From TrEMBL:
<keyword id="KW-0067">ATP-binding</keyword>
<dbReference type="InterPro" id="IPR013849">
    <property type="entry name" value="DNA_helicase_Holl-junc_RuvA_I"/>
</dbReference>
<keyword id="KW-0378">Hydrolase</keyword>
<comment type="subunit">
    <text>Homotetramer. Forms an RuvA(8)-RuvB(12)-Holliday junction (HJ) complex. HJ DNA is sandwiched between 2 RuvA tetramers; dsDNA enters through RuvA and exits via RuvB. An RuvB hexamer assembles on each DNA strand where it exits the tetramer. Each RuvB hexamer is contacted by two RuvA subunits (via domain III) on 2 adjacent RuvB subunits; this complex drives branch migration. In the full resolvosome a probable DNA-RuvA(4)-RuvB(12)-RuvC(2) complex forms which resolves the HJ.</text>
</comment>
<feature type="domain" description="Helix-hairpin-helix DNA-binding motif class 1">
    <location>
        <begin position="107"/>
        <end position="126"/>
    </location>
</feature>
<keyword id="KW-0227">DNA damage</keyword>
<dbReference type="InterPro" id="IPR012340">
    <property type="entry name" value="NA-bd_OB-fold"/>
</dbReference>
<dbReference type="GO" id="GO:0006281">
    <property type="term" value="P:DNA repair"/>
</dbReference>
<dbReference type="InterPro" id="IPR011114">
    <property type="entry name" value="RuvA_C"/>
</dbReference>
<dbReference type="Pfam" id="PF07499">
    <property type="entry name" value="RuvA_C"/>
</dbReference>
<comment type="similarity">
    <text>Belongs to the RuvA family.</text>
</comment>
<dbReference type="GO" id="GO:0000400">
    <property type="term" value="F:four-way junction DNA binding"/>
</dbReference>
<keyword id="KW-0233">DNA recombination</keyword>
<keyword id="KW-0234">DNA repair</keyword>
<dbReference type="Pfam" id="PF01330">
    <property type="entry name" value="RuvA_N"/>
</dbReference>
<dbReference type="InterPro" id="IPR003583">
    <property type="entry name" value="Hlx-hairpin-Hlx_DNA-bd_motif"/>
</dbReference>
<keyword id="KW-0347">Helicase</keyword>
Length: 203
């Protein structure tokens, strides 16, 4: 079992990270909650989870053990696999996921791609006891309002990543366009994060 990787970031194409560990390149899938905080280049440390199925061996990476633990609890829920777990942590910050569960906020959870009402209700019911000891911060983290310029490559990367996370192409295009009306961005990670947040209730 691979539990932790420390290496140089060679490539970032949401949601995939290519990490060079002593000459071996590991392709790691990471939620945007992790992806957004990684350096463009340089050394990164990821706490990993190896998922083995009949069709694929996939390695998932997280910036903290707590985030990985939440992912592992999510994929234990009936009907929630690694892909959906990745979508949950890409659409909402870990603290937001826990808050939605503890507050029975089914509506917020159904905004996540692939999560219908029944799945959202299962998440609340099955996860409530698992996250009851989670320490939520007194205040929620704010959005990144840094104003920068976007280009075609960033738009393409952002749309591709959102489709990989489960959104339909039309939904991804619409969300990205909505964000760009009020924000200027130069990083695809930032654009993806803002587009995903724009699809949450109250956004």
């Amino acid at each position: 079992m691979i539990g932790r990787l420390k290496g140089e970031v060679l490539e970032k194409q949401p949601p995939m990270i290519l990490l060079d560990v002593m000459g071996v390149g590991y392709e790691v899938l990471a939620p945007m909650s992790t992806f957004y905080n990684l350096p463009e280049t340089g050394v990164a440390v990821l706490h990993t989870h190896l998922s083995i199925s009949e069709n694929a061996h996939q390695l998932f990476g997280f910036s903290s053990q707590q985030e990985r633990s939440l992912f592992r609890q999510l994929i234990k829920v009936s009907g929630v696999g690694p892909k959906m777990g990745l979508a949950v942590l890409s659409s909402m910050e870990p603290n937001e996921v826990v808050a939605a569960i503890l507050n029975d906020n089914v509506t917020a959870l159904t905004k996540i791609p692939g999560v219908g009402k029944k799945t959202a209700e299962r998440l609340v019911i099955e996860m409530r006891d698992r996250v009851k000891d989670w320490q939520l911060p007194a205040g929620a983290a704010g959005d990144n309002n840094e104003a920068v310029a976007a280009n075609g490559d960033i738009l393409a990367e952002a749309e591709s990543a959102m489709i990989a996370l489960g959104y339909k192409p039309a939904e991804a295009t619409k969300a990205i366009a909505r964000v760009l009306k009020t924000n200027e961005v130069t990083r695809s990670e930032e654009l993806i994060r803002l587009a995903l947040r724009s699809m949450l209730p109250g956004a």
